[in-house]
Amino acid sequence: MFETVVFYVFAATLLVAGVCVITARNPVHAAMFLVLSFFTASAIWLLLRAEFLAIALLLVYVGAVMVLFLFVVMMLDINIERLREGFWKNLPLGIVVGGVMMAEMAAVLAGRYYGVAPRPVPRAADYSNTKELGRLLYTDYAFAFEVAAVILLVAIVAAIALTLRGRKDSRRQDPAAQIRTRRADRVRLISMPADKE
């Protein structure tokens, strides 16, 4: 009973945080609500006894991806008003996609309650979901795992390329030019007659 109450509290928090992600006007606030939704999803995974996935979600998404999102949002000069111009134009398509996703989730839940979906297999006490996940990732899904790794590498390179763009209004040092300097280029001795009083 207590576990069910905790699950519904975290699920409600996750839904509210997800709605706030797409309705927040400030992109930094939206990213913070996304962090909250990741934390609550991780707590739900802990309730489902998927400890490795919960910790991986916290470490990978909250610890790395969200820091990257916030870094890019703060580095880029995003015009919020221009982004919101196409909101009403794309709203019907968004409602259709959201409706399809809701229907799929309802079908999955209905299949569980009406006996269509397979029941989870009880496992022994020494069963490790981390070991089973690793075995599946590196055997059955090795190609998909490598494709995901390449996509993440491309995303990291793209984020670095976005932040390294040259700006005319910013000053920066050139260490190579500083090393190449000579004393004759920096100091000029001027011969002046001495003052006679």
Structure explained in plain terms:
With 197 residues, this protein is mainly alpha-helical. It has three domains: 1-82, Four Helix Bundle (Hemerythrin (Met), subunit A); 86-121; 129-161. It is 71% helix and 0% strand. The protein is built from nine helices and no strands. The chain has helices spanning 2-23, 27-47, 51-75, 80-83, 87-113, 129-138, 142-163, 175-179, 183-186. The longest helix is centred in the middle third of the chain and has 27 residues, at 87-113. It is elongated and about 110 Å long. The N and C termini lie far apart (101 Å). The mean pLDDT is 82.
Q: Topology, pairings included?
A:
Blueprint: H1 2-23, H2 27-47, H3 51-75, H4 80-83, H5 87-113, H6 129-138, H7 142-163, H8 175-179, H9 183-186
Helix pairs in contact: 1-2, 2-3
List the keywords.
197 residues; mainly alpha; Four Helix Bundle (Hemerythrin (Met), subunit A); 0% strand; elongated
Query: Whole-number average pLDDT?
Result: 82
Rounded radius of gyration (Å): 28 Å
Describe the main β-sheet briefly: none
Counted up, domains total 3
What is the CATH class name of the largest domain? Mainly Alpha
C-alpha end-to-end distance:
101 Å
In the CATH hierarchy, the third-tier topology of the largest domain is known as: Four Helix Bundle (Hemerythrin (Met), subunit A)
* Proportion of beta-strand residues: under 5%
CATH architecture of the largest domain: Up-down Bundle
Poorly predicted tracts of residues: none
The total strand number stands at 0
Can you write the helix and strand succession as a string? Answer: HHHHHHHHH
Q: What is the number of helical segments per DSSP (H or I, 4+ residues)?
A: 9
The assigned structural class equals mainly alpha
